[in-house]
Known about the structure:
By secondary structure, this protein is an alpha/beta fold. Helices cover about 35% and strands about 15% of the residues. The chain has helices spanning about 1-20, 25-30, 45-50, 80-90, 95, 115-120, 130-140, 175-180, 205-220, 265-290; strands at about 55-60, 70-75, 100-105, 125-130, 145-150, 165, 185-190, 200, 225-230, 235, 245-250, 300. About 40% of the residues are buried.
Amino acid sequence: xxxTSRWAAAAIAxxxxxxxxxxxxxxxxxxxxxxxxxxxxxxxxxxxxxxxxSARLVRTAELPPDGNYIFTMVPHxxxxxxxxxxxxxxxxxxxxxxxGINVHCCTLESNFRVPLLREYILxxxxxxxxxxxxxxxxxxxxxxxxxxxxxxxxxxxxAAPGTYNTLAGKRRxxxxxxxxxxxxxxxxxxFGETDMYWTHIPARGSLLARxxxxxxxxxxxAVVLFWGVGFFHxxxxxxxxxxxxxxxxxxIKVDKWAGPKEGQEYSDQxxxxxxxxxxxxxxxxxxxxxxxxxxxxxxxxxxSE
Length: 305
């Protein structure tokens, strides 16, 4: 019995040493480490989740399979469930809708240091939202793509039912990566994402607002005051069964940047592409808001601060 306990303890110690050391390369996706096969992407449980939310994936344009794409989704909401259902799983038929496109969702690097959670998200093909991981994914061959949610965790602090606020107005990292790799930017709008939970958004500048932002800065994720529905009735932690419709727009063609990244010319190109992306997101909103957000309380706001 003692030997069994020692072997178990040794195995656990080796596992922890691996995920905190060499296994970290699975997250940062060094070129020497192949990306994991997403063996759980077509797990039979995911269609049930999609049905709970009446989730739909809407294609508005063709995506040739010989290209590379940075799917850039707004809004983030509390936990970007639309990104998970449509891109991390095949519950809404991504592989049929965009044949030949192999997409990897990007998440916080810290998630890859959590035992078991690391294996779970790797089995869905997730990557760390780091430059190295994204660059590696986009340069591995035709069809290789990533999903980014530029608003990130901070956007959860401005999420409320009926509202569509995104911090994409001040995020340009995805534009820099597109110019570096030549990948096209694909605007994605997640209708219903902010309706899953009721939230309390503290007044801007209040003590609570400052505390929540400080926690986000330290931990890397947002702490939000939220509530949903109970398992049987009343309030609880279950998300509301609201319709989630994710609209994928036409790709924005990006030519790989060959010149120096310092200087006004490069900065102007970044700003031009960022403006084009914001315009594309606004166009998707205007075109589909009455169909997929009929009960909205406000219009889309692309925040820059």
